[in-house]
């Protein structure tokens, strides 16, 4: 039998789970239509609204990872031939183009330099009347943070396109105000700042976007119209709670426990904790003479990208960190695979102890 290994997950995700989330996984299993479980599901949706910054009724955890959130976002809203403008400043913007095009969209990709934030003016100038404008709030591949409030305002000024946002790495880590910013369709993941294992995709959609949805999307599993019957978001009237699929009850319990913990700490405090840890890490790395990759002023606190110094073998350092310190950090993505490291301090790892540990370990390994 293989032995149990425990690591410090300081990469781009998954992160280590909050202890409450781990305890949530160990709760006694309930039937997925048990009233006791449905109460947990209802409260989970309620608490998800809080972390999304939305009052949108249709806010729920999809039973799959963040990429399924992306699929659900496009498959439910793209009608064949719709123009979808995608702001691309990293891997996940690129993935959006691929998913949107498979859903039949005419994709207009607005390319940005990797490491830079999305430029709202260029994005809205890319097409006079798109159906959807899509962007990634926190680009995990580069460590760049985009201003979704500004993008939302620009999109509203320009017309009536829906705003679709990837919040996988931003939710419960940095400010996220879906309603105030005009996010119509949003998806996230559990394995980053929410501090839960990978496996669920918190999702939210506005009435406006739901009203324009595809009536019979090509995906049965991700059909929001069908899912509403189970999650009980179908609007006023008795809640049907009909079977659609077997909800992953342990994962929902775990998310429920983590959300309870996050809201008890207070969202503002959670954001401040991530901001402080990220700043301390970035200051410490620069003090070691290392160069940060993402543009100054647009760096995510929860995911720091740093250039591998000349002459240093990136993979070798990551291997030594794992073997000597049980620390996982991430490689770069695409053309930056060997020249950038990605260090995540998310959820419970957004702490002074984690900052001190990773700085000490990296300093030791780099000599
Ligand atoms: N979007 C972003 C910004 C991500 O960081 C990720 C995963 O890292 C995804 C989407 C895809 O999520 P998953 O890997 O959970 O399917």
UniProtKB/TrEMBL annotation:
Residues 32-332 form the Aminotransferase class V domain. GO terms for molecular function: transaminase activity. Belongs to the class-V pyridoxal-phosphate-dependent aminotransferase family. Its cofactor is pyridoxal 5'-phosphate. Keywords: Aminotransferase, Pyridoxal phosphate, Transferase. This is Alanine--glyoxylate aminotransferase family protein. It comes from the Bacteria.
